[in-house]
Amino acid sequence: MSLLLAGDIGGTKTLLSLWRQSLERPELLREERYVSPAWNDLAPMVRHFLAGDAAAGEPVAAACFAVAGPVREGTARLTNLPWRLEAKALAGALELPRVELVNDFAVLIHGLPRLASGQTASVRDGEHDPQAPVLILGAGTGLGVAMGVPTPAGLQPIASEAAHGEFAPRSRREWELKEWLRADLGIERVSIERVVSGTGLGHVARWLLQVRHPTGDHPLSASARRWMEAGDGPSRADLPAEVAGAAAAGDPLAGEALSLWLGAYGSVCGDLALVCLSRGGVWLAGGTAAKLLDGLRSQAFLEAFLSKGRLRGALEPIAITALVDPGVGAFSAACRAGMLMA
């Protein structure tokens, strides 16, 4: 069986992994995590990784690199990293016969048919129509969105920038949150991602802290202040995780923040499910999928997903599944690398 190279490339970290091709699903041989900004390009990082002894002299037959950003005609420029990647140039520099660049959420579509039971958890029972599109959303640092359309050759991924559409408030509270975010961040418009993401949960909590505890006397007030002062740097504390933890411990404000955030997430999920009529299923990925599984199963999320007026019936049959394996991006890239050999 052939060796496959997979990469999950982000502005902060990159996960490179080596896999062995098999009939059902690729088998992981070795993986290594790199600090992305410590390298001036992807090629030398990959050469360092392949210098390891796991390959035992066997050549890599194909490589797929999932990148956090749009890919066009085999070229990608990462938003938070000064790299311009070209599939053909990488193939030449690494002496690999097949190299493909794929958006980091579109690549997940390739992994869906080969997932094992331990990589998923049910959020909402329903149908998986094999003849219908599927939808993947992932709330992490940002919000990733992709769709898959069934074809005779399998699911065809369609990358999307739907997360950067306008956030649409459903209530007075959400309108007040949106207006506060616009003023606080000094921005002209508030995108969906500003609210529906792990970062968004932090902003929701900051808003409630300012409204309810303007003197900074809440246990989360100091964390929220430090979180904003740190900006987007690697030393930034994980305020969203603190909010989720405080909510689980029974803190009323944190619980309110999480409930509001889950409602916004569920509503956006329902909107996008209507866009593509994803009767093949909705899949939730990203860093929050496993960490907030109970919240995603709550009425705060599920009722917001279904609450679409006359179109509620169109959403009721749809199953929602969480991707709880943190390595699912690399796994999906390995699946795609194997497909390049067909």
CATH architecture of the largest domain: 3-Layer(aba) Sandwich
Taking the sheet with the most strands, its summary is: 6 strands, mixed
Specify Rg, calculated over alpha carbons: 21 Å
Task: Give the helix proportion (percent range).
Answer: 25-40%
**Whole-Å distance between the termini?**
13 Å
Contiguous uncertain segments of 5+ residues: none
Query: Can you count the helices?
Result: 14
Number of folding domains? 2
Cα shape: globular
Strand order of the largest sheet: 9-14-13-10-11-12
Count of beta strands: 14
Mean pLDDT metric: 93
Q: Give the percentage of residues in beta strands.
A: 15-25%
SSE pattern, N- to C-terminal:
EEEHEEEEHEHEEEEHHHHHHEHHHHEH
Instruction: Tell me the structural class.
Output: alpha/beta
**Highest-level CATH class of the largest domain:** Alpha Beta
What is the CATH topology of the largest domain?
Hexokinase, domain 1
